[in-house]
Amino acid sequence: MKKDRIERCSWATTDLYKEYHDKEWGNPVHDDDILFEMLILEGMQAGLSWLTVLNKRESFREAFDKFDCRKIAGYDEAKIEELMQNEKIIRNRLKIRSAIVNAQQFMKVQEEYGSFDSFIWSYVDYKPIHNHFNSVDELPARTLLSDRISKDLKKRGFKFVGSTIIYAYMQAIGIVNDHVKGCYLYVEE
Length: 189
Hints:
Strand content: under 5%
Number of helices: 9
Distance between the termini: 36 Å
CATH superfamily: Hypothetical protein, domain 2
Number of domains: 1
Low-confidence stretches: none
Number of strands: 2
Shape: globular
CATH class: Mainly Alpha
Helix content: 40-55%
Radius of gyration: 17 Å
Mean pLDDT: 96
Largest sheet: 2 strands, parallel
CATH topology: Endonuclease III, domain 1
C-alpha cells in the first residue's frame, strides 16, 4: 500500500516541524501579540535549533505570561531569577533580559506607529516577498532587507535582533515566503 505523501520543504522532517511548516512558516502575521512572541522566540533560538524552541514553546508561553509585552516589560530581578530556575525554557540570562528590553521597545514602536504590525510590514509595503528557490540550500541566512531592519531595530534599542535572526523572523511572520519550488505551499508570483 502506497502512502500519500505531501511534498514539503526538506527541513520539515519531524511532526512538530511539519505542523509549524504547514500552519505558520511563511504565513503573513498581522497580530501584534504573535509578532511579539515570534520576535522573542527567534531571539531565544540564537545558537540553537528551531526545533529546540518549538519543543519549549508552550513552556515559554506559560513562563512569559503568554508573551504579554506589557507584563514582560515590567519584569524585575526576582522574575529573572524565577525564569533562570525554570528547566522547561532556555535559561540564558542575556536572552531573558533581552525579552524584557524588547517588550519595552516593542511598546514604544506600537505607540509611535499605532501597532508593531504597521511598523514591520511597512518595510515591504505591506506585501509579502515570495521567493523562488529550488531547494532550501539556496535560502539566504540574511539579506539587505534583514540587514536594514536589524540595524533599525538595534538603533531603537532592541536586543538579539541581528540580521540572521531577523531574516528567520521575516520568514516566521510571512514577510518572506521561502517555501521552495516543489513544496505544496510554494507560491508562484
